[in-house]
Records
---
Amino acid sequence: MRCFFTAPLVVASLAGYVYGHRHATPSIDGEGHTGLRRKTLGFGPAHPHAVFRSSPYQIQTNGFVPVDSVTDPLEVARLFVEDVMLGKEFAEGSSKSYKIRKDSYTDKATGVTHVYVRQLVNGLEVADGDMNINVKDGMVISYGNSFYNGAAPQPYVNLNADTARDVRGEACDALFTSIRSLRHASVVDSEQLPMGSPSASHIPELIALADANCQPRELPDNLSSDDDFRPALLKFMATATPSTAVATDILENFENHRDAMEVTPVNHLTHDEGEQPFEFTVDNVPDAVNPVKAKLAYIQVPNAAGDGTELQLVWKFEVEMQDNWYETSVSASAPHNIISVVDWASDSYVPIPKVPDFEGASYNVFPWGINDPECGDRSVEKENDDSLASPAGWHAIPTSVDPYSKSVRSASKGIWRNTTTTWGNNVFAQENWEGQNAFINNYRPEAGSEKKFHFKYNPKETEKPDAMDEAQKYINTTISQLFYTTNMVHDLYYRYGFDELAGNFQQYNFGRGGAESDAVIANAQDGSGFNNANFMTPPDGQNGRMRMYLWNTALPYRDGDLEAGIVIHELTHGLSTRLTGGPANSGCLGWGESGGMGEGWGDFLATMIRNAEDQKRSKSKWQDRKTHYAMGSWAANRENGIRNYPYSRDTVINPSSYKTLDKPGYWGVHAIGEVWAEILWVVAQELIDKHGFSETLYPPTPLANGTIPAGDFYREPASSLAAKPLIPIHGNTLAVQLVINGMKLQPCRPSFFEARDAIIQADEVLTGGENYCDLWKGFAKRGLGVDAKVINRTPWGGGIRSDGLKPPRICEDSE
């Protein structure tokens, strides 16, 4: 039965490339419906000089001496940046400087302060010049650094185009190599091929991706200008739009589009170091659904010799489109090359209103842990009562931050609205049959004053032309399920450290810090596609957007909203993007190994949640638990789901290792992600073997005074120690905690190696390193031992890898 044997998403989407992209030409899906597949861009320069250091020996080698433990962590970070890492380069009057970002924060659970630093040169930010410095008790315990370390150019002078290698060209070479290798490979029956694993039959799809990423449209020479941002922006829009008609119109009517743009300067309430007076927004941009944010910046590109980087002056744009939300850097000089693209898929004071005591809601849903309709029956579940994660429950929201209240009347500060629909502080859930961006007035179920979301679900098999209507009959059930699952994930991740300061998704933050007004916009049965799901993650303070689709893989159609693993995977994109590189930086998981891990974390956490709840229902001993699962098998109507292999520690069932990334078909982020998820799965099993297994990942309910009881979930703290950090007892809960803590420690654009090292350091911070060898042995079993290597890694994940099967020598000696 699929429910108990389960095993393989290029922007924050669930399916592999076959389902993951929209192109400019219509396609016909398996049931005869015409539509456009989603187009996405994603590439950028490599950073061969970037480092992540988590060893105290590496940090002390730089000459940094720990300061007094009571020293402000931000001051510790400042001293580290100026006195050790950058020295004379940051002397007064230097063209190089930095700013400590406002999204830096101290993790309440671990006591680690995560400090995020952005490099400035000639007063402009270096878009990919990042440092993350992790400070605890006056010590820098780890740091990542991708600061530009060459000579500063003259202010506002661009590079000669001939002096820098073509960043996109290198990435495209890797893609074309994949296409060529598939052309020479034996053709595989597409019906037997796991989704997300391209074969020769998918070459047209890959060529379409190459066309989108590698052949941007060129502007006529006489319409391009080095001192005007508009040609650069229009070139990007002509390249990014999925519509050939729009692209053609931009080029044929360039002057009209250029002259129609309206610029509004961004005025900061106060002027902080690094804020640029010429930052602005642009209206009337073709194919953008909101004003484009723009500013001048630098970006690092490989130098001609290939042994370092040089700075290139760029226009940095944030562009929200119908199906994409891009952060892109386009060279300021003609011909305005697109250097980097990441597809993401103002803070005001509000008085803290007193939280009313509202009656909880109930939902007739597939309960937490039942992955899909084949795994169990629906039941009536109560609104989760977690006063820590959701103090006002799931349906209450202050009118001052409520988009609906603002749309119908003047919001009154300090007043709460207790909704009787699927609209609350953590998520706005609704149908989106038209596939548009509007959501406030879309349909959502009304449950009445008792808030009983009890709706029927009994779809019938119909003729294909009637299948859509049949699915839409049950939209009340679908939206209620999506609202329930999303809130459960919100509350779970909150308890593991994804709180307001860390950048979680809440419309109101209860005065606990972080940027608010960013609840998840969750669209059920989204009409913009089939057989997929995706999540757009802008920086903290802007709403995340999740789109769940119908799957026409069976009759009746299968609804992705009802497969919990898919919903959890998508929401985990928001978790990993906000935690990696800081809440205000959504550009750290865009492509290559970094982008792949963004996909892998979603599969891993969805599978860990499912495994625990399966065990609870099976009533068997934890040693007999299931240890292999497929991803998306119910929605896709495939036994092995949408990945190449089920997730399993058995190498016969899943042989994936680090070296697997070199195989044809593993160039994309989804294939890379399933390798990362498999590695984490094996590491988790090592911890479970040592510490045992919990039948729930959900921590104990907070007491009335807000403290967390240890119960059978956390260790009882020693009497001489503070109650924090809380250390999970069991292997599976500990694995989830370490993976999430590792996201906070790792640098922007991490590799597999750096993410591995961050998880190992997370254990050092949490437990004093008592699982050091267990973690290393787990990573080594799938090729990420200390002797793992990669040569000539490219931005999109290419290179030649060698599996490392050895743990550190101290662990070998301990066996």
---
Amino acid sequence: MFRTALRNVLAHKARLLMTVLAVTLGVAFVSGTLVFTDTLGKALSGQSAKSYSGVAVSVTSYGQARSEEGRKEGDPGISQQTLDKVKAVKGVGSVSGRVSGFAGVGDENGKLIGTGWANKGSNYAPVKDGKDPRYTFTDGTGPVKDDQVALDKETAAKGGYTTGDKVRVATNGPVREFTLAGVFTTEDGAVNAGGSLVLFDTKVAQELYLQPGFYDELSVAAAPGASADRLLADIKPLVDGKTTKAQTGAALAAQQAKDIEKGMSSMSNMLLAFAGISLFVGVFLIYNTFTMLVAQRTKELALLRAVGANRGQVMRSVLAEALVVGALSAAIGLAAGVGLAVGMRSLMDTIGAKIPAGDLVVAPGTIIAALVIGVLVTTVAALLPAWRTGRIAPVAAMGSAHLPASAKSLVVRNVIGSVISLAGIGVVFLGVSMGGDGRMVIGGGAFLMLVGMIVLLPLLSRPVIAAVRPALQKVFGVPGKLAAQNAVRNPRRTAVTAASLAIGLTLVTTMSVLGVTMGKAIDRMSTDKLKADYKVTMSGGVGSLDKSVAETLAKAPGVKAVSPQAAGYFKIGDNFHAASGVNPAAIGQVLNIKVVSGSLDSLGKGEVAVAEKTAKKQNLTVGSALQAQFEDGEKAALKVGAVYEDLDGLLSPYVIDNKILAAHTDQQFIPEVYVNTTGGQSKASQQAVIDALGKNPAMTVATQQDMRNEMGGLINTMLNIMYGLLGMALIISVLGVVNTLAMSVFERTQEIGMLRAIGLDRARVKNMIRLESVVISLFGAVLGVGIGVFLAWAVGSTLTKSVPNYELVLPYDRIGVFLLLAAVVGVLAAMWPARSAARLNMLTAIKTE
């Protein structure tokens, strides 16, 4: 029976190819994802281990602790005295004190080199031999003077800098000019991620990032023969355990490896989710393929039964075919996945995200996963056709009598599908009623809806396709009428084929509607709520601006209004509340704030403005008194001077004069500064703001359109990734349509011969098959789009409170493109079956049983 199954597999090469391709795509995505994340994780872990190879013990400071009153307690870092104590411990070879923070280097045009979030600054910390073990200099030396810096080799090359050149370096304040003392190589993760690293003299780095005489980290090297564990035990009593953590270099490297693995998991899970979608869609194709193969071999199977094969043997022979196909698909998919991983690695290098050198990792688990997935998916999909094979009576099969599904089985199916669909819709509405906490519930309801839709599709296909039959007949004549009738002749098969397209387009439509709606909400926020000409931020939107930025811009010629957006908080009663520190004289000029009661002028008197929703929740009105405790623990009585409409994303629920907020904060976090100029938005005005900041490469001066483009670009990038990943599911859908039409042509060979005999020429036969394909494709597409819009509404309803100006927007142009693509899919999928049908010999076809 196994040899028979093997011969059957090889006898239907076209069907085999389509099935293998469907499974291969899914397996390739799974194995490629696993290989890529394993390779990347091992490379990063190896890099981490290498960077800590000479560190016996590492001591890390987490900054000052806060008392219950909010006051900062303890040292801001690890003191020089503590470093000296650690250095005196027996067995310590050397100790390096480290401080670090953001530092950006500009190229010859003043543009920032590297990725904003990965641009770092640190100190050069030579030990006994006068060298810093973390860095290997290829030219020059480390900085030893206040006006010197060293650059990593990649950054120096990108900026065209050589030893002795003047380099403009920016942190979060004014740009400073340094002399390049040396160029080095490093295993630092930021540099390998496409960023940059600037080394300062230790005193300069402490002034920039911490306080003179303090460090963020100590790296302890052991003397020959000294034990890292022994050193750790001796060093721990010397440091403050509340605000610092001491651990061995090996433990730190292991912890970083775990963190890297955890970081990889989110990307891996996303890619695996799309691989799962492709495999799920592939199940329908495999099911159709084996249904078709069984139908083509009814006589053969009957003969096997007649010569002694029982039902179990016949069923196992079909499953054996599935096993062979699955194993072959898994092997090809694994090979393709390795190639995909290599391609993803090259792509990362191309976009500037460098990956450390390392061997490609094909773990045993990846090989097992590929084989199990390929074989399991194929076998599960073939179970039902195999079971039906065993139920065909030998006499009926010998007569080629295909046994249609009984009316009873379709009734049972429709009842089950209705129950599941209604349950899914109910769960979705439950999630909607839960607001922001209901998105996972909506996801569960969406899954039930899709399952219910798949079960109900045979029932839905008849009325939906019947509704378009008159139009098809009127436009295309007899071929159109026949195409509509043929599309519902086998509702089960039509349903399975349409399901794959419906699933893909449900996901695409949901994401498209949400993406376009979010983009419009951002647009409205930019135009309706934001009056500022420009927004100044750190490049990449990471980090805080120095308070000097707003002060500098306020004195610049041509600047009309400047307001920082300082993020802070204070405590009222037992609860902490976010507060925005602003310039009272300018905030009304840069933001469109609708005051419900009171006046924003009260901010200049030291009063506080409260968002409307917060005011209602806290039962506050103009004139209400608040007892607030600030970050430093100081308490003050604040009076509510205004209540305003919420500006989520632009202002915190409490707004106060930044002079008051800054007086109670050591280092303010200022993510942005808004600016208005006398000339309004223009290239000249924008350049004037850039010049006022000293052409700082670490800062971005964005127009309103830039702000829209930034957020819109992020949304579009996510959508493009989604379209690309889901395109694979649609490719499998095309194969499914091809299979269905090929099966339809096979079953109707005699009928097509008769149609040819009574006058239907080859062109109209082709047209009939094409229209049948388009009808099936559009049937699935329309269902997918409809469910996708419904789910987008459901998810969007949970965002209305967190996203200002959220209103559902239907992108009719994109939906139209989706339906057009579905029609194109139908035309392309019909090419081979239509050609086969048109080329049938009329007399031979009529004689076919």
---
Amino acid sequence: MPQATIRLTMAQALVKYLCSQFTEIDGKRVPLFAGVFGIFGHGNVTCLSEALEAVQDRLPTWRGQNEQSMTLAAIGFAKAKRRRQIMVATSSIGPGALNMVTAAGTAHANRLPVLILAGDTFANRVPDPVLQQVEHFGNPTTTVNDAFKAVSRYWDRITLPEQIISSLPQAVATMLDPADCGPAFIGLCQDTQEVAFDYPEAFFEPRVWTIARPRPDRQRVAQAVELLKSAKKPLIISGGGVRYSGAEETLAKFAVDRGIPIVETIAGKGSLTHYHPAHAGPIGIIGSTSANALAGDADIILAVGTRLQDFTTGSWTAFSPDAKFISINAARFDATKHLALSVVGDALETILEIDEALSDWKASPSRMEQAQSLFKEWNHLLDQHQLPTNAPVPTYAQVVSVVNKAAGENDNLIAAAGGIPGEVAKGWRVKSPNTFDLEFGFSCMGYEIAAGWGNAMANEGKSTPIVMLGDGTYMMMNSDIYSSVLTGKKMIVVVCDNGGFAVINRLQEFKGTPGFNNLLKDCRIEHRENPMHVDFAKHAEAMGAYGRHCESLADLESAMEWAKGNDKTTVLSIATDAFAWVPGDADWDVGVPEVSERETVRAARAHQQEIRGKQRVGV
């Protein structure tokens, strides 16, 4: 019997396939692809948009304002859904496609799924060079879409309509693989989108995808257990993989039962509430004194679901040279770093197996007592920095405290770049698990507001995204305030206006160079001593949002209550001190000139060499 087929264009078949994919969240079957963020151009409007328009009741399309920001919104959505549901982002060819490369890098660094569909040049090359085509004289097959190869987990270009039959399932499998999760890119040649093909009906049969939970090797589990049993001062580092595995409660119970304190990475923050009995604070360069002290004297570190980036490890100066690592990770690449005992497997399943194999072993009670004492000191330090003062301009710490107190139990905090990450990582006291999104894997300026829009979509009105960002980031990408108003997806945006790129100015001056080209007053502008002030509240109002400038912390407190009661996106701005920061005590390895006429730079170079002398050497 001949195979049953259905004749569709490639674009129609692609969309029909997306509509046939499902997943389960909390026992309920839902579409795997929740929607499409799209900006149409000649490379995707005549064929792909025709297919999307026909299914908008099943696969809604949302118009973005910028290709990068709409893809960042898709990433914020996926993060809020803990990688269980995926959004699509589509653009035309050329500059539209290239605008999405930064967002693809953000997804790649953070191990987050997004399906990127970009228009491409003609497969037949007859009309070449087409509008927006960048020609490579020695390789006519190269287009701007090849730029995605460096920032995609899966990359393909469709030049024949039947190629999607093998390509699309591979793209989905990649995005749902805990070990290989990241962005999938598919370039769609313009002429191929229009071509009809007799597709097998079986290709479109509904499929329910589940997330695999790979179990660890028994021998590695046994080795991990023996190593843990030898620990005098063990420590658990909880990373983002704990949240994506849904292992928060399991790891927290394990920590309490075994008497091992937990510290959190930037991506892992929010796996525990702030005052959980095993919680000892965020670790690393923008971490707490409590977590970093525990890291410094730990002999065995159980790292769960973390890629151990430099902000977690203090550029590998935060730990004793003799400390040993057990790394639990679904990705072999991450588990094998820095001479760790790698236990490759799902976080939840691996912790359960290690817990069972440990039998009645527990760490010395003194270890948890030490952690709780250090964490109490840390909270006292936070209180000191967050209390209001009579200073004319409030600090980041004070602003974070006001917003934190006003936030609802399930409201989501979203931040990414500048001075805000360090202040919220240290000072935001998480009230409910999985309500904290700090994108600092790529530290992508512009993520914040876009991700707030995606987060609002993911939470469907059950909570309010609270976006915190600086004036510099706001100026870089703010158009999704308008998107959120258009689509009725409310968020609260708090702009801390410190007059430029203050945190990078801090690093610049700390390493010996006078303030230069970061704070507005130090830039090449007409009125250096009194730069033009941007009224962020009025700017937001011009995009249809509510806006209010706050003159004081008390004003901010009342404005937050007002914002919570509003029916649409609200932007609050407040002047913030560019030079006051909550202290941290982890080192960071950055390049400092080996030769300089400045004494301040030479001193910074000598200090940097001291830092490098403390680094663990690993792979």
